[in-house]
Amino acid sequence: MLFDFFPSRTLTIYLAKTFFLRIFAVLIMLVAILQMLDLLTESADILAYPGNSEAQLWTYVTLRVPQLIARFLPYSVLLATIITLATLNQNSEVIAMKSAGMSAHQILAPLLITAAVIAGLSFTFNERIVTRSTATLKAWSAADYGPVPTESAVRSNVYLNDGGDILYAAVVSGSGDNIVMSGVTYYQRDERGMITRELRSEDAHYANPGWRLKSPTLFDVQTADTRSLGEDLLIARGLTPRQVEISSVDPDSQPLPQLSASIASLRDANRPTAELEGKWWHKISGPLSAVLMPLLGAVAGFGLARSGQLFVRAVIGMALGFAYFVVDNAALAMGSFGGYPPFLAAWLPFFLFLLVGETVLIRTEE
Predict the structure, then answer these.
(1) What is the pTM of this model?
(2) Please, how many CA atoms are within 13 Å of residue 243, restricted to the half-sphere of its CB?
(3) 75-89 tens-digit pLDDT
(4) Domain boundaries, the chain
(5) Transmembrane stretches, by residue range (predicted)?
């Protein structure tokens, strides 16, 4: 029988609906609290820009909330798992289901299916919304919360080498020959690597070849003299738009197809790609971690509620879930430094805790 693994249709819908509503409630609670704390931290910087008001605060909220949802959705699934199973256990519903001949895996099946749906929605949400809001928010923050960038392919805090000199741009927007840099600083250095002059400009455009600074201001380090040149200046003649594009890859701001193209371009230029490849795989394994949470938190739903160990079981389930997130972040960091291959860094924690969860469930309940 193909569907013997699941309980009855009525019970499956009941468990899935209860679980989904609690995920949604916990997520709203977490995002609301964290957004208020984050807004208290950033509101002073946002309102410091001349002309900004309450409208800009709401703009910040709309850009920040998708990031918070993406980051804390797996935590919400974990907490919802513990709340749901602990409540079922305390109300003797788990005992009733096991008395009817259901195994622990059959009780968890509706929760796992719901978590899989949540993982799919999370992946789509991250690819379609979170990447765009992250790119815009980073560029807006780099512009000190001035006018919100509306161009495509917005990148922030870009550093480029022009021989011994360094070109910095707070915001880079556009692509190809239409790339525009804003908040530009050009550091000219001597043969010892010491900065001798700084050229600052509001923006720079590609002049093919080189980049044209608009009415730059010159600061001479030796004389501490600052003066406006009063006319445009051409710099970095050897720097091409393609070099700008591949030097400012932000994996959090790019969906999978675009990130794949960026990795291929960097690989063709013989540049390291291990960190980006790890982030590529983690864009899949990250949302899929929601499927692990019912398994890791399942220990809270079994055992006798009257034994006095329900709280201890809930703490153990929470500890297993949070241990996964710690190991996941550590593995991703190790992959960025070259300690693990990118694929292993992204997937090892998932499969490790899948085995841990299954082992705990089988040894204690099956």
Answers:
(1) 0.79
(2) 15
(3) 999 999 999 988 888
(4) 155-250
(5) 19-37, 68-86, 107-125, 310-327, 339-362
